[in-house]
Design a protein that fits this description.
two-stranded antiparallel ribbon; nine-stranded parallel beta sheet; 47% helix; 14% strand; globular; 315 residues; TIM Barrel; alpha/beta; single chain; 14 helices; 2 domains
């Protein structure tokens, strides 16, 4: 099955990561080999009120080939309105968040909370599919709310018209604790007539292959890509320069956002990159306090050089 150029044979996708899936990060992940990307969660309710913050999260680059806008909410008709909103018109597909376990999302009856009400869940998907017209609509879910109910969840998604489903291998009750349930993901694939994307704990090539053993149509990488977008290049057998990717990430963001805002926003990305380079506590502390992006980039370059020297000496 293909959707807008996405061949589900061995597809590797960047998950929607709240606070991280900005336009620069998405572009870098694509350069490293990601076949499709997802935006951060976008509030359907906020779109009704023309939220500037939400609109800023929908910025994209021409080089991005395939991006799904992920929306969340609990009202089927508000969600359908969001799908038709002009700020989402330049995305190739729509993704519905029905898996977020964040307390403030659950408290509002959104995200994973919808897994307790399969009727409303089905209605939301159905209305979004109608509103999307010829654009694909995917759904991001967990295995269930407080127990594994994935077969029923997949049935609801299928009957409502979803194009594919991304399954995180934990229930809401598990949060991010415990191990991914590969058997439950395999069950989702076995009962489904639409593509299933496996998600959860994919952090390297070994864990990627483990997820592939469930026979899923594709694999979605989330937290494993934070600080290490080159995980996609490792899986795809591509060679990239890590610092080139970081510089490009910053360059793209500077084209769209003010420097003062980026000074604060980029710290979490820089600290994640530093962790990937196994930087020492002193460099991490400097990055946490740094107010100049260029100086932060120098610190990351220093960390990358130290890691390369260390790796060569071990060899």
């Amino acid at each position: 099955m293909e959707i807008k150029g996405l061949d589900f044979k061995d597809a590797v996708l960047l998950a929607p990561l709240a606070g991280y899936s900005d336009v620069g990060f998405r572009c870098v992940c694509q350069r490293c080999g990601a076949d499709a990307m997802f935006t951060e969660m976008l509030s359907a309710e906020a779109m009704r009120h023309n939220s500037k913050k939400t609109e800023d999260m929908t910025i994209r680059e021409k080089e991005e080939r395939l991006v799904f806008a992920q929306i969340f909410g609990k009202d089927p008709f508000v969600m359908a309105e969001a799908v038709k909103n002009n700020i989402l018109s330049h995305f190739e597909g729509i993704d519905i968040n029905m898996g977020c376990p964040a307390p403030k999302i659950i408290k509002n009856g959104e995200g994973s909370a919808l897994l307790k009400d399969l009727n409303t869940m089905g209605c939301i998907i159905s209305e979004c599919v109608k509103a999307a017209k010829d654009r694909p609509v995917s759904v991001k879910v967990r295995l269930g709310y407080d127990k594994v109910d994935i077969a029923q969840i997949i049935r609801v998604c299928e009957e409502a018209g979803a194009s594919f489903v991304s399954v995180h291998g934990r229930t809401f009750a598990q949060g991010f604790s415990g191990s991914v349930d590969y058997d439950a993901i395999a069950l989702a694939k076995a009962v489904s007539h639409i593509p299933i994307i496996g998600n959860g704990d994919v952090v390297d090539e070994e864990s990627y292959q483990k997820m592939k053993q469930t026979q899923v149509d594709g694999v979605m990488i989330g937290r494993g890509a934070v600080g290490s977008p080159w995980i996609f290049s490792l899986i795809k057998g591509k060679k990239v320069d890590e610092m080139d990717m970081i510089f490009r990430h910053v360059e793209i963001l500077r084209e769209h956002y003010p420097e003062a805002w980026l000074n604060k926003y980029l710290r979490k990305h820089f600290l994640a990159y530093a962790a990937a380079f196994k930087a020492g506590s002193d460099i991490k502390r400097q990055l946490a306090l740094q107010t100049d992006i260029n100086e932060s980039l120098k610190l990351l370059q220093e960390s990358a050089n130290i890691l390369k020297t260390r790796t060569k000496s071990v060899k």
